[in-house]
């Protein structure tokens, strides 16, 4: 192999790396919109936002669907920080309980979330990250005689992995924990979410 040929191969390798690295980095840099779907588990008890306490805790498994939008910034070769806003609704997620001899239904109508995340690129296409922020859950509590609605403030934490399928399409798997405990009441939410996003 001649010196000129080796030099040409080396130059080609360097150029390919220079082109590929920014392309991979762009998969975790800039604005994005996305969708999510997955598993949701809510646990409520014994009280809820000042209402008379339930006889005992109640819980419910459900499917959850959502949309999100956010912005990520590659701050170093392998470190990413970002912010995200999300909206989600559940399917068949009403919890059933009793208050004395009265049947009570607790229906989480929807949730808004605002969070920040920090991640590390374990490869050029795979980002491991942690998340933390604020959530607001709209809940309607009903009996045969009356109904009321409350907005529950909560904190959230979680983490997951996001993978760059193409330059513009990412997929993610994430776990989230949301705690809306207030005034002696318990409202806990755990989710396992699959998501896909389009990055501009």
In summary, what is this structure?
It contains 1 helix and 9 strands, in the order αβββββββββ.
Please give a structural write-up.
The chain is mainly beta. The protein has a single domain (3-199), classed as Porin, CATH 2.40.160. The protein has one helix and nine strands.
Q: Main attributes?
A:
elongated; mainly beta; 200 residues; 12% helix; Porin
Enumerate how many helices there are, as a single number.
Answer: 1
- What's the CATH C level? Mainly Beta
| CATH architecture identity | Beta Barrel
CATH topology: Porin
C-alpha-based Rg, rounded: 23 Å
How can the largest sheet be summarized? 8 strands, antiparallel, barrel
Bin the helical content: 10-25%
Per-chain topology:
Elements: H1 3-26, E1 30-44, E2 58-74, E3 79-91, E4 95-99, E5 102-121, E6 126-142, E7 147-164, E8 169-179, E9 187-199
